[in-house]
Write a structure and sequence with these properties.
single chain, 71 residues, Double Stranded RNA Binding Domain, three-stranded antiparallel β-sheet, 1 helix, flat
Length: 71
């Protein structure tokens, strides 16, 4: 099983997403639900291409936490 961190960002025109451990694997969308679907499709496409080219899948090296501060 593979596990990759996905970073979502709000933009002026919608949302973007990328996978730090899969360089070049990015997606955009008008809504968060749309970009979620697009990034999952992009990850599958990226991994399929790596498999076809017989390139080893990268190991997950990134992690994330969210901290909430009362200010």
């Amino acid at each position: 099983m593979l596990k990759y961190l996905i970073i979502f960002e709000k933009t002026e025109t919608g949302y973007s997403a990328y996978v730090p451990d899969l360089p070049g694997c990015i997606a955009t969308g008008r809504t968060k639900a749309n970009v979620e679907k697009n990034i999952l499709d992009a990850i599958r496409f990226h991994l399929d291409g790596m498999k076809e080219e017989k390139i080893k899948y990268p190991i997950n090296k990134t992690d994330a936490e969210t901290f909430v501060f009362a200010v």
